[in-house]
């Protein structure tokens, strides 16, 4: 489609996902109004190739917006997860516009870019939760929302044609351990302003009830670690700063020394310290000292909960970690969920530990909760729609079954209409809701060993 086509008018408010709609991961969203576009998030995913030791990074194919980069007013990043920011250092030079995000996400982006040899966007403008920025014809307010990484914000986006709420990834957590508690008042206030649409996370829409609070996980981890006699390794996602904060608490209460194994974990810890989201734990020691301590005084936080090759947990299972070796009677706690597609690699990892006499505690076998999802279950989605009262709901961030379940919840809780689609579909948010299928070419780019990006042959339009 030529760049001269697909120009939103002064009365139009459009939504066009290039990634993250009909799939989990690789988010790239575009909002269009009055000849301009606003990008929200620019993330990665990883190839599903069990034959390759190191899965390759994949990004959305951004060609649609590259052809219209003169109309791109700016880029907003909602939070620091790789599936929302990981592609930006690789793609930003194709559409070099200002990038806006919160301080923690900005700090993580700088460090990720340096580690991957990508470009740090410039200017990179830091916005505090609660602030508002005018970006081209869009007014964007950052609404703090709870998720499994701090400084996550939903976006209340307004323009002359209407207004919308982009939830980003979220959950309702009244005691998140790091950052402010969830505030329903923010979303009720947005609803009172009359929302044309809510673009909403669907990841856990098929799960009934309510997600678990990080405060409950903290107490569950304390009980689990207290019951262990040898060394304890807790594997979690590096970006979960609240989980790290909870493990600082657990180390203090159990009088264990704490070590951080894994470069990404150390990067996230350092970034959180630098922006004031964490205080340095008195129990934290250099990892090189862990092997000299009595076993019952050691608590380790490690990366590699998905069985990733070369991660700290995999090296511990193989007995090849340079700073620590586990023995029979030690315990590994999986404080994470298994991402679909990683089941085999995780099971191989756990079998290796079991063969050495290492005890395993995972989210399914634990007596008390040792993990909490960062996404809303059905009850939380219902509450969000009741507060925000949108005319239109557009579920994203999920496979079709998740989005269909989200749409059903939206219609049952006050949304006049709910539309589900896929990457490349154009959603009309205002003046009248509707959609057109397969308006934009979409696909994936893959990064090779030399860092070059090329289109995958199965990219579609």
From TrEMBL:
Coiled coil: none annotated. Its EC number is 3.1.-.-. GO terms for molecular function: hydrolase activity. This is Ribonuclease J. It is an enzyme of class 3 (hydrolase). SUPFAM superfamilies: Metallo-hydrolase/oxidoreductase (SSF56281). Keywords: Exonuclease, Hydrolase, Metal-binding, Nuclease, RNA-binding, Zinc. Pfam families: Lactamase_B, RMMBL, RNase_J_b_CASP. Residues 25-210 form the Metallo-beta-lactamase domain. Gene3D superfamilies: Metallo-hydrolase/oxidoreductase (3.40.50.10710), Ribonuclease Z/Hydroxyacylglutathione hydrolase-like (3.60.15.10).
């Amino acid at each position: 489609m030529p760049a001269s086509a697909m120009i939103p008018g002064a009365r139009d408010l459009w939504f066009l996902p290039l990634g993250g709609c009909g799939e989990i991961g690789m988010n790239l969203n575009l909002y269009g109004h009055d000849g301009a576009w606003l990008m929200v998030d620019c993330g990665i995913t990883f190839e599903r190739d069990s034959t390759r030791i190191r899965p390759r990074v994949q990004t959305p194919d951004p060609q649609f917006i590259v052809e219209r980069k003169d109309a791109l007013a700016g880029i907003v990043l909602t939070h620091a997860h790789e599936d929302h920011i990981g592609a930006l250092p690789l793609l930003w030079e194709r559409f070099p516009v200002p990038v806006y995000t919160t301080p923690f996400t900005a700090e993580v982006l700088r460090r990720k870019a340096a580690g991957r040899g990508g470009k740090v966007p410039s200017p990179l403008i830091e916005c505090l939760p609660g602030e508002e920025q005018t970006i081209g014809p869009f007014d964007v307010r950052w609404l703090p929302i709870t998720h499994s990484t701090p400084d996550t914000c939903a976006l209340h986006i307004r323009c002359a044609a209407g207004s919308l709420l982009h939830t980003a990834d979220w959950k309702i957590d009244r005691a998140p351990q790091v950052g402010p508690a969830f505030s329903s008042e923010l979303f009720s206030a947005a609803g009172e302003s009359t929302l044309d649409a809510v673009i909403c996370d669907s990841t856990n829409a098929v799960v009934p009830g309510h997600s678990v609070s990080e405060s409950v996980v903290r107490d569950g981890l304390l009980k689990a670690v207290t019951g262990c006699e040898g060394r304890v390794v807790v594997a979690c996602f590096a970006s979960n700063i609240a989980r790290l904060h909870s493990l600082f608490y657990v180390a203090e209460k159990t009088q264990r020394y704490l070590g951080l194994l894994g470069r990404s974990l150390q990067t996230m810890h350092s970034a959180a310290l630098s922006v004031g989201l964490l205080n340095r734990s008195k129990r934290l020691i250099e990892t090189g000292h862990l092997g000299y301590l009595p076993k019952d005084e050691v608590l380790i936080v490690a990366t590699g909960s998905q069985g990733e090759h070369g991660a700290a947990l995999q090296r511990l299972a193989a007995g090849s970690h340079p700073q620590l070796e586990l023995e029979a009677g030690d315990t590994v706690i999986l404080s994470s969920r298994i991402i679909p597609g990683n089941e085999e690699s995780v099971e191989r990892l756990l079998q290796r530990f079991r063969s050495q006499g290492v005890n395993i505690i995972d989210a399914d076998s634990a007596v008390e909760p040792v993990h909490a999802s960062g996404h809303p279950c059905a009850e939380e989605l219902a509450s969000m729609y009741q507060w925000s009262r949108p005319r239109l709901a557009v579920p994203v961030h999920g496979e079709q079954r998740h989005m269909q379940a989200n749409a059903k919840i939206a219609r049952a809780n006050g949304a006049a209409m709910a539309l589900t689609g896929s990457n490349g579909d154009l959603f009309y948010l205002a003046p009248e809701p509707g959609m057109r299928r397969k308006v934009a070419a979409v696909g994936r780019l893959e990064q090779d060993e030399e860092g070059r990006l090329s289109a995958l042959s199965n990219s579609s339009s």
